[in-house]
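Minutes, project check-in

Agenda point 3 was the complex the collaborators sent over. CS summarized: two entities, 666 residues total, and the question is how they sit relative to each other. Sequences were read into the notes so everyone works from the same version.
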Amino acid sequence: MTRYIVRRLLSLPLLLLGIVSLAFLISHATQGDPLASIVSERQMDNPEVVAAAKARWGLDKSLPEQYFIYIRNLLSGDLGTSFRTKQPVAQDLLERLPATLELVIAAMLLGSTTGIVLGVLAARFRDRVIDHAARLWALIGSSTPVFWSGLIFLYIFSVVLGWLPGPGRLDARATPPEGLTGFLTIDALLIGDMGLFWDALHHLMLPALVLGWTVMGIVSRLVRASMLDVLSQDYITAARARGAGEVRVLLNHALRNALVPTLTIIGFTFAYLITGAVLTEAIFSWTGIGSYAVDAARSLDYPAIMGVTIVGGAAFLLTNLATDIAYAFADPRIRLS
Amino acid sequence: MTAPLLEVRDLGIAIGALDVVRGVDLSLGRGKTLGLVGESGCGKSITMLAIMGLLSEHVRVTGSIRLSGDELVGKPQSALAELRGKRMAMIFQDPMTSLNPVMTVGEQLGEAIAIHQPRMKRQARQARALDLLRLVAIPFPDRRLLQYPHELSGGMRQRVMIAIAMANDPELLIADEPTTALDVTVQAQIMELLQRLQAERHMGMLLISHDLGVVGDIADEVAIMYAGRICERGSVDAVFDSPHHPYTHGLLASLPQIDRTVGKLASIPGALPSLASRPQGCRFHPRCFHAQETCRREEPQLRPVASGAVAACHFAEIAVPSRKAEEVA
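CS then shared the predicted structure for the full assembly.
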């Protein structure tokens, strides 16, 4: 098992290199001029300024040269400087990644737990009212676009009812603590500021709810399907035959088996949301990775695009590994080797 | 007179409009073995599940099932769960699929004990689980407790299933083709184990099988089932020595016998009718060599025959040549 994990971890940089190279090729192959975001429109006619900018950002060099320079810098831990923010990309990412992670983790926790509960109930009460209601709720959740449900939720809970604050991660007057984890709820607890904690938590609720609803839809449908499959197995009848009651059959016997396939989808969704939560981030003014990625792509900010790609790729590779390890723990028949 | 351990009267099982089992009567005394024999799909297994109360709510069960006089039909699930694993236990056909793959042998054994003896301490439970594995003659029992089902062979898994069934000393053990999925060499060991346990614990055993040889060896009574009905029932001696139902006769004739040379094994022509297309009259008549007009119209009822058994055939007395007579000739 340890050997397996080490081997997988060792192969990680190679895979990332492949991802980075592909991203480099694709981003540089697009029609468009990154200079448009570096040099102001009026200066574009001035060949001296343009030439200076090209030289300053290394855009005068040939594509292979640019590539090797980028890779060399990458190996020494330098992700380059963003054309747009003029900040080191690594710094940009570190500022924004915790925000996204905080949102995505909260959404995953919310969505997975409610999804599992709903899926179990739907399978147990198959074709009854609970089942139909759960399936309808899940279908709405997984098919409603976030930009729409986000606005509706904001309108209801923030504007009409006033229960929860509007967009943003904190109240405009609050100052986030610096130099800590970047997870505002955790940082607030670390410095012991309960007021700040509640503020951060309240701001987190709506976007997590919106994003979690989508997750819930995906998870509950999968849990329902695999619960139905497991409940028809012989070992379920055998468990009942030894006198196991309904709750024990559902949770100890069926759910433990049904969760195995569910792990995959939870892992995949998590990795996907790291860069895929962009709509939620946009609606809730959440300065995360997703919105950074979109801005980078729109201005052909090569270093930023590459940086986001590395984060997204690493997120996928690491969650895949974590899923495989979790699999081995959940199902003793699976041996990692 | 005390009530028999298990008494089934006029059992009917229906799924929607489909009659799966009808008019089944069975009776089993303490310490006795009743063999229930029939082809796959004849309703044996569903009858067992009905006795255990394990059928889904969509299945309609009518008639009466009494365990030591205690009526089970119509009992709420929670009350049935109290009885399952405690007074009646069941082992299944396929030991490869009847153990939970993600729970260790010890967890599943411990669970079987804990469900009915919730106050037992963890350590006592462990010790009991170990005893149970020894009881079913599993080598290295302490190591097995920590193993998962996939680490055991089929025979070992069936022993574990038997150990689980024995966890609370049941009065009734239902064995649904317990050896069908196992290797021939292992089959005999498992049957021996079951026989030994039954004798030691004075347990009633309901053995479902399509293996007449096994039933003839260990059962006291036998019931032959065809298309959801009992067609012949009686002591093993009576039924095996002089079968009165043509189906029983056909089954027995299709058994290979080591002391007789036959050119070709006899078989019963045709196949078991499907649930939806069971024939009018006697359900066996399309396959019966002796079918008459009456058989197509009227369904025969079980009635006493010369051997002391009961058979459901209009021509029970004349249709079947006695096996004894055959052998003499």
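Noted in discussion: The CA atoms of residues 242 and 322 of chain B lie 5 Å apart.
Follow-up: revisit at the next meeting once the mutant set is ready.
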